[in-house]
Design goal:
single chain; Na+/H+ antiporter like fold; 319 residues; 81% helix; mainly alpha; globular; 14 helices
C-alpha cells in the first residue's frame, strides 16, 4: 500500500525513472536490443495520439468564460523573445565552438513553445485551463514568427523559412490543440452525460501524460547517452537547464501573480515542449545541443512533481 501511495504522489518522478531504466535495459541487454529497436519507434508514434486524448479530456472541463486573452499572455511572449535574442547575441559573440554549443542549448530551452501537456498539470494544480489554452494558441503564433527569425542568426546554415515554420506550427496547433478543443466543446453541448462521467475520472489525462513522459525519457536518454561531448560540457549542459527551468518557472509565476494567475503563467513559461525542441535542434542547430532540452524535460518534471506534492499535501500552492 505504501508503494502505491508513493507512486501516486510522485507519478512524474516514477515515469522519469521508469522510462530511463527501460531504455537502458533494452539498449544494453543484447537479447532485448532487437525488440527495443522495433518497439521504440512504435511507442514514439503514440505520443501525439496520447496528447490528443489527454487534451480532449482536459478541455472537457474548460470554463468558456475564461477563453479570453490576458495581458500576461503577451508579457510572457516578450520575455521569451528577449531571452532568445540575448542567447543569440551571446552565441554570436563566442569564438570557441564549445561555448557556442552551450549557448545553443540555452537558446533552444528558452525559445521552445509551451508543452501541449501544460493544461493537464495546470488542472491538477488548480489553475485556469482555459486561460492557458488561449496562451498556447498565442504562443504558437509567436513561435511561427520567432523561429525563422532567430534560427538563421544562431546557425548560419539553418535552412528554415517562414513558410516552413508556419506550417510546422499550424499543423501541430490543429492536430494537438484546435481539434481536441473543438471536440471537447461539442461534447459538452451534445454529450453532457458523457462529459459529466468523464469529469469523474479525474486523473486519466494525468496518467496518459505520465506514460508519454516515460516515452520522452527514452528519447532523452538516447540523445544524452550518444552525444560525443567532453565531460565538463555534458555537466554544463545538464546544470544550465536546471537554472533555466527555475528561472522560467519563477519569472512566469512572478508575472502571473500580478494578474491573479501565477499557476498558469508559471507553467506557460516554464513547461516546455522539449520534443519539438529536440527535433528543432537536431534539424537546424548543432545536434549535440539537443542534450539541453533532453535534460530540461527532467528538471521541469521534477519541479512539476514537487508542485503536485505540495498541492496534494497542503491543498494549495504557496508560490
Amino acid at each position: 500500500m505504501g508503494i502505491i501511495k508513493f507512486i501516486k504522489q510522485w507519478t512524474l518522478l516514477c515515469a522519469i525513472v521508469f522510462g530511463s531504466i527501460v531504455y537502458l535495459v533494452f539498449t544494453h541487454v543484447a537479447v532485448l536490443t532487437p525488440f527495443g529497436d522495433y518497439i521504440g519507434p512504435k511507442l514514439v508514434t503514440l505520443l501525439p495520439i496520447n496528447i490528443f486524448l489527454m487534451l480532449y479530456i482536459t478541455f472537457c472541463k474548460i470554463q468558456m468564460d475564461d477563453l479570453t486573452p490576458r495581458k500576461w499572455h503577451f508579457i510572457l511572449q516578450g520575455i521569451r523573445t528577449l531571452l532568445a535574442a540575448l542567447s543569440v547575441v551571446a552565441a554570436n559573440l563566442c569564438t570557441d565552438p564549445t561555448y557556442k554549443l552551450i549557448w545553443e542549448g540555452v537558446f533552444i530551452c528558452v525559445i521552445c513553445p509551451t508543452a501541449a501537456a501544460a493544461p493537464v498539470i495546470v488542472d491538477k494544480l488548480g489553475g485556469s485551463i482555459a486561460s492557458l489554452t488561449v496562451y498556447l494558441l498565442i504562443a504558437n503564433g509567436f513561435t511561427s514568427i520567432i523561429i525563422p527569425l532567430f534560427f538563421p542568426l544562431m546557425e548560419k546554415g539553418a535552412d528554415i523559412t517562414f513558410a516552413m515554420a508556419a506550417w510546422m506550427v499550424l499543423k501541430r496547433v490543429l492536430t494537438v490543440l484546435v481539434i481536441p478543443l473543438g471536440l471537447a466543446l461539442c461534447s459538452r453541448k451534445f454529450l453532457p452525460n458523457f462529459v459529466a462521467w468523464l469529469k469523474t475520472k479525474r486523473n486519466i489525462a494525468f496518467y496518459l501524460w505520465s506514460f508519454n513522459l516515460s516515452i520522452i525519457m527514452g528519447l532523452a536518454m538516447q540523445n544524452i547517452m550518444n552525444a560525443p561531448v567532453s565531460g565538463w560540457v555534458l555537466v554544463t549542459l545538464c546544470i544550465i537547464p536546471l537554472l533555466l527551468a527555475i528561472f522560467q518557472f519563477s519569472m512566469g509565476k512572478l508575472v502571473g501573480y500580478r494578474y491573479g494567475d501565477s499557476i498558469g503563467a508559471g507553467q506557460a513559461l516554464g513547461q516546455k515542449n522539449t520534443v519539438v525542441g529536440i527535433w528543432l535542434t537536431l534539424s537546424f542547430l548543432n545536434p549535440y545541443a539537443a542534450i539541453a532540452p533532453c535534460v530540461y524535460v527532467i528538471w521541469q518534471n521534477i519541479i512539476n512533481a514537487v508542485q503536485l506534492w505540495y498541492k496534494d499535501k497542503y491543498g494549495y500552492l504557496k508560490w
